[in-house]
Amino acid sequence: MFKILKYSVYDLMRSRWSYVYLLFYLMLGFVLLFLNNDLSKAVITLMNIIVVLVPLIGTIFGIMYYYNSKEFTDLLLAQPIRRSSIFLGLYLGVAGSLSLSLIIGLGLPFLIYGLFKSGVIWDFSLLLLIGTSLSFIFTALSFNIAISQDNKIKGFGYTVLLWLFMAVIYDGLFLLSLIVFEEYPLDRFSIIATMLNPIDLSRILILLKLDIAALLGYTGAVFQKFFGTQSGLIIALCVLMLWTVFPVWRLLHRAERKDF
User: Fold this and answer.
1) Which of 47, 93, 173, 258 could covalently link to 206 via disulfide, CB atoms 3.0 to 4.6 Å apart?
2) Which of 14, 86, 51, 23 lies closest to 254 in space, CA to CA?
């Protein structure tokens, strides 16, 4: 598995898209800090970008890499290597490369502008942790779609539809349900519905950490009461971990049973 992981990383390092992704975050970080030296405001701006952009890049890049390396994967499947090792190595190589580009691209500008001397180091660390989690989650989801759908056009379509649903449509349905059933107690429903979408859960965690949950009104008070506590934060991080573990488990389970 580690040999396949190392190959995946080397293969991605030869791809210009990995460097484009890294340079994008480098430029974004330097531009934000150049226009406004307030690190806390820069973190808030990055939050709005990361929770939408990272899932999109994770899904698109993950499914592109899987389809482009399909011949190499078929060659590995013909060897006496466990299927779980093959697909886990490919997945970790893609997700790890995307996460590393995110951490380096955003970390360098903030370090140069005095991150360790500011009071937002923990907020920024949480931002990077959530961005890394989203990279692993949506890369795993894209691999699941790719391994279940041999048709590339359908695979790309399902991937874009997945991101669109998680990033846009789900929020609209959530808001509509809150309006329609506003006469009923919706505290538990709001918390559960938020946990069912990793993008919403990530956004809520960052908003609460930055103490601007009041912008969410009634739901902000509910989330502050639950996620604002130490146990609520731990539960939320565990849910994000489950969002990573379950798609990876399904990927390996599907790989063992699929007829290649």
Assistant:
1) 47
2) 86
